Structure to design on (1107 residues):
């Protein structure tokens, strides 16, 4: 829905910076719903907000909607197909105490 | 604008002109008796043969099925690439060229009218978009009606007039030209994964037979007084022994021929001219079918000649395409269209050494050479099913020259060669007969009165070739003739020179013909509530979004007909 | 107040054409029949909308007349050696035609959003074919529906009610006549309404499909579980699929974006092709953008290829991994970009975005986006399907004409008009035509 309210809308930012997690993983990491986590790969890292998955994910899997935030960490290699690796990628995740979630405008500057 | 073509050797069989050296005068896009030399552009055609522009009444060049074929075959595109020039757009493709290339290539061979013979009405908006992007050529498209739910229901309850009213409405709604029937009933059965083998089997749930569908639509055709007869791709295409179904199909509308008109045109008859009971005793039934056609005046046919090449098969005959996928192991695309029709695409290579392919190759030619009246035959390959249209000149030389046929025969599977009667057929088409098979007959069958001939008032679509009949014997010099037929010296379209030495020099837009069938307005009112209901229940688009406006056609040319 | 019926929704690949839009004084007052996304679009499209053309002068984006923006855009494109033209999926076919003509004129590359969406589907199609149909066949006949790696209750909200599970067709009256199977990594909203939910391990769809194909042929699967699914469940699913009268597999980004990419689709196409030995089975990609299929379709008939088309040699060439936009950008090969109705700066992986931002960008879009913020030239356009007409192709390739229900602001012409002007100016600068 946020998509249709504009890329700079709160609604869009909210949905694209949400990290849906399995409650077991949240417990393991000692992260409460609404707290921040840092997602990292060799390409970069991004801070997003963790919540209990609305649509169940199995332990070891997190779901983050497609958008400019998660694009900071996904793998660009297309393996000769043109398609980057957007799903099923291995990431590191840890609680984040210092940085905040970037706003859409900040992201633009960050780029 | 005026044009004067001097000294061409003209073949205009419709007007009984057979190799006469004469002038052709053009004014405002039409052939006229004479023009003022001082005003006109003069073209000296000495040493050249002139024919009306080529007319191809059956070639899959545009629409969803064709486009999915393009998607399936990126490797085919690599076989031919065309760079952009100042004038022309770029393009690719050997068996399924892109649209701009299709127009340029046909025109380059001297063809000026091409028909897309099979479009699903629901998707015909797409077909028109592609036809719009096919430059130069005049064109039309045929809606597929043999598995259409409205048609089957009306015919089942013997409501011919309502059926006719529906067809009239449909032709106008989707800007179509003629009634096309492909494996009637069988494609609806394919919606469940089944097919029909005979014309007397019942279509599941609709309780009607292909025979009833063919006869019913033939009656509709008569009632609406459409310019072209029903075009039929017979049931059981591709199967050994299928010639019997073809005979049954032709017979079943014998009594429905209107005075002086044909009641049926069998498309790509080669694919339905098979004898035998399996692949090992697969044989040609061309002689049997030719015999029937010779004795009956209500039938015409186009060849569907195959070539030994790697090409792409694509038809609305969903069940057949699946069979071919299993036979060949090749990639398979299937696309069924709700309430209307279906289709499939399978790449295929015809091989000289393959017994069945070699017999297939002999069949088209056996048929063409044994049907006595050239007005009953049109030269096609069912492009791209039998092979790409750019190979037409090769087929033309097989008709013109026994020697050319022999040279080809020598290389084919020996058993096929021995089994075929082709070698014993001495007949060679004359250039006049070739003009019939590639211009005059198709135009006549289509009911396009201003095409396929060079009489006064005809559209000035003219092709000139570097063939001087006084010095060239097509029978002996077939290689030279083939080369000349590949690249028209000049192609003239509505009086404008569009091709010189096979290269495009101008790209006007061609017309898209469609039929406005009048006279059934009352019956259409009755049909309207059926239309509304069926769309509401069974279609997935609204009735109001179905019709295509004339504004979609770049150069619409409606033809009014009335009972 | 005017009520316009039969309006075609320009949101997703469903292209629902039964919307009723009430308009008063050139303003949309209400919309009937549309889903939540549709309503949000129709009632909010003016939010974060661009109202004037801008050109970057120094650090600022300065408002200019349309002509100046067009001239600047054309100049950037003509000066470039290898411009890349991207987007195209959220606009009408008429604009897509012009995009291709422009790319050809510039000897550049043109790509559409399927490159990051169903490109892998297309690649598998090219290798194997594709047994499919129009949506009405499913509505009327299907008794088994599968969503694999697709979550329509989140992405294509009316898909189930209009075309599949809940639709009333000729032979299937509704939910009770149909069986729903969902295969996904997560237990999605769609999974919750399924008769069978198969939770597959991430990146293991290929294995699962292979196992299914074995089970269909009664071959013995030597493991206890495949992809996190028990062999019993695999065999049970195989029976459901084989025993149906008409099955339909709808698939989405779960297959195209996860590891294996086009190979996942290879497996899917092989599975469905296999199933046709026993029953009637079809498959269909869940296209996201409302006209991405239109982009593929137009690209195909004009160039022979559905996306990732390169004109640098003067004729169309296609080689995903080389001529696809992400790869062109990853190798820093482009030196200008035209973006039409898309937001690649938001949608592309960071490496590609960084490269894109090193190109002077021209953006034609109705909305303010992350991409427009960074562009050299921005030209605001009208919303296709709301403020201007256009042709679009549904996920099953049925073409529909999008309607105009309100007038656009005068500063926002149709992107078809904008592209036409840019093309004309490009030709004038090049000294030809």
């Amino acid at each position: 829905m946020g998509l249709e309210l504009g890329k700079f809308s709160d609604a869009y930012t909210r949905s694209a910076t949400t990290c849906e997690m399995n409650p077991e993983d949240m417990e393991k990491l000692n992260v409460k719903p609404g707290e921040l986590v840092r997602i990292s790969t060799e390409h970069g890292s991004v801070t997003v907000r963790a919540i209990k998955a609305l649509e169940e994910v199995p332990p070891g899997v997190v779901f983050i909607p497609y958008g400019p935030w998660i694009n900071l960490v996904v793998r660009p290699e297309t393996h000769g197909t043109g398609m980057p690796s957007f799903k099923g990628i291995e990431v590191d995740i840890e609680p984040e105490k210092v940085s905040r979630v970037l706003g859409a405008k900040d992201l633009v500057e960050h780029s | 604008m005026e044009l004067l073509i001097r000294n061409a050797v003209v073949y205009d069989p419709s007007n009984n002109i057979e190799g006469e050296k004469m002038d052709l005068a053009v004014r405002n896009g039409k052939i006229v008796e004479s023009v003022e030399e001082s005003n006109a552009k003069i073209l000296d055609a000495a040493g050249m043969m002139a024919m009306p522009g080529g007319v191809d009444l059956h070639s899959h060049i545009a629409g969803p099925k064709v486009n999915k074929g393009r998607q399936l075959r990126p490797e085919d595109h690599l076989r031919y690439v065309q760079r952009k020039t100042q004038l022309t757009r770029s393009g690719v493709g050997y068996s399924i060229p892109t649209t701009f290339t299709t127009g340029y290539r046909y025109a380059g061979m001297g063809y000026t009218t091409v028909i897309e013979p099979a479009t699903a009405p629901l998707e015909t908006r797409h077909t028109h978009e592609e036809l719009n992007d096919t430059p130069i050529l005049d064109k039309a498209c045929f809606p597929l009606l043999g598995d259409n739910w409205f048609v089957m229901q009306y015919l089942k309850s013997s409501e011919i007039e309502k059926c006719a009213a529906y067809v009239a409405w449909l032709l106008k709604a989707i800007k179509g030209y003629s009634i096309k029937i492909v494996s009637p009933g069988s494609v609806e059965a394919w919606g469940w994964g089944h097919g029909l083998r005979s014309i007397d089997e019942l279509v599941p749930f609709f309780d009607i037979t292909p025979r009833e569908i063919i006869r019913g639509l033939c009656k509709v055709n008569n009632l609406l007084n459409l310019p072209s007869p029903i075009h039929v791709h017979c049931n059981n295409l591709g199967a050994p022994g299928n010639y019997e179904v073809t005979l049954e199909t032709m017979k079943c509308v014998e009594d429905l021929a209107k005075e002086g008109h044909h009641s049926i045109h069998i498309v790509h008859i080669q694919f339905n001219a098979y004898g035998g009971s399996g692949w090992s005793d697969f044989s040609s039934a061309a002689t049997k079918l030719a015999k029937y056609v010779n004795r009956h005046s209500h039938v015409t046919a186009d060849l569907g000649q195959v070539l030994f090449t790697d090409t792409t098969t694509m038809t609305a005959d969903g069940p057949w395409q699946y069979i071919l996928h299993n036979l060949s192991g090749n990639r398979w695309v299937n696309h069924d269209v709700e309430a209307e029709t279906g289709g499939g695409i399978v790449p295929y290579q015809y091989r000289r050494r393959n017994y069945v392919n070699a017999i297939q190759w002999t069949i088209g030619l056996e048929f063409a050479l044994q049907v006595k009246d050239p007005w009953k035959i049109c030269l096609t390959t069912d492009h791209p099913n039998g092979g790409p249209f750019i190979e037409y000149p090769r087929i033309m030389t097989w008709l013109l020259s026994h020697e050319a046929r022999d040279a080809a025969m020598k290389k084919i599977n020996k058993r096929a060669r021995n089994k075929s009667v082709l070698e014993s057929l001495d007949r060679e088409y004359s250039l006049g007969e070739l003009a019939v098979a590639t211009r005059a007959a198709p135009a006549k069958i289509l009911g396009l009165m201003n095409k396929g001939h060079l009489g006064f008032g005809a559209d000035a679509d003219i092709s000139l070739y570097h063939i001087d009949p006084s010095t060239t014997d097509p029978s002996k010099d077939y290689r030279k003739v083939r080369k000349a037929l590949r690249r028209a010296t000049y192609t003239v379209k509505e009086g404008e020179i569009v091709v010189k030495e096979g290269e495009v020099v101008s790209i006007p837009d061609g017309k898209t013909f469609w039929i406005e069938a009048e006279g059934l307005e009352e019956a259409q009112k009755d049909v309207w509530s059926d239309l509304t209901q069926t769309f509401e229940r069974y279609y997935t688009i609204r009735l109001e979004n179905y019709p295509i406006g004339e504004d979609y056609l770049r150069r619409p040319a409606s033809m009014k007909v009335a009972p | 107040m005017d009520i316009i019926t039969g309006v075609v929704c320009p949101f997703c690949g469903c292209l629902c054409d039964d919307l009723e839009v009430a308009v008063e004084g050139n303003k949309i007052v209400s919309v009937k029949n549309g889903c939540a996304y549709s309503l949000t679009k129709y009632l909010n499209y003016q939010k974060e909308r661009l109202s004037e053309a801008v050109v970057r002068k120094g650090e600022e984006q300065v408002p200019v007349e349309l002509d100046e923006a067009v001239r600047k855009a054309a100049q950037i494109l003509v000066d470039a050696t290898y411009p890349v033209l991207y987007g195209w999926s959220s606009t009408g076919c008429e604009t897509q035609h012009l995009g291709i003509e422009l790319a050809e004129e510039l000897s550049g590359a043109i790509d559409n959003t399927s490159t990051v969406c169903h490109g892998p589907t297309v690649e598998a199609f090219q290798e194997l074919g594709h047994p499919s149909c129009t949506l009405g066949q499913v509505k009327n006949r299907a008794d088994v529906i599968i969503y694999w790696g697709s979550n329509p209750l989140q992405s294509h909200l009316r898909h189930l009610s209009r075309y599949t599970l809940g639709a009333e067709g000729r032979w299937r009256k509704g939910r009770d006549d149909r069986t729903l199977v969902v295969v996904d990594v997560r237990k999605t909203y769609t999974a919750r309404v399924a008769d069978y939910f198969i939770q597959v391990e991430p990146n293991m769809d290929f294995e699962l499909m292979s196992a299914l194909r074995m089970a269909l042929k009664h071959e013995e699967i030597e493991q206890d579980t495949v992809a996190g699914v028990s062999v019993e469940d695999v065999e049970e699913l195989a029976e459901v699929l084989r025993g149906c009268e008409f099955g339909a597999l709808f698939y989405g980004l779960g297959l195209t974006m996860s590891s294996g990419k086009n190979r996942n689709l290879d497996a899917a196409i092989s599975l469905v092709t296999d199933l046709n030995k026993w029953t009637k089975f079809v498959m269909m990609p869940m296209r996201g953008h409302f006209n991405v299929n239109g982009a593929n379709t137009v690209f195909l008939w004009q160039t022979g290829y559905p996306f990732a088309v390169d004109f640098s040699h003067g004729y169309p060439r296609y080689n995903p991994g080389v001529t696809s936009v992400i790869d062109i950008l990853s190798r820093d090969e482009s030196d200008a970009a035209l973006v039409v109705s898309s937001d690649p700066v938001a949608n592309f992986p960071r490496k590609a975005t960084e490269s894109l931002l090193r190109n002077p960008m021209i953006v034609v879009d109705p909305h303010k986006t992350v991409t427009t913020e960074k562009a050299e030239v921005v030209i605001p356009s009208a919303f296709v399907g709301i403020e201007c007409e256009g042709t679009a192709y549904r996920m099953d390739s049925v073409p529909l004409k999008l309607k105009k229900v309100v007038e656009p602001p005068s500063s926002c012409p149709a992107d078809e008009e904008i592209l036409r002007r840019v093309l004309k100016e490009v030709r004038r600068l090049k000294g030809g035509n």
User: Anything to note?
Assistant: Chain B is about 35% helix and 20% strand. The longest helix of chain B spans residues 521-538. Chain B has a mean pLDDT of 97. Chains B and A do not touch (no CB pair under 8 Å).
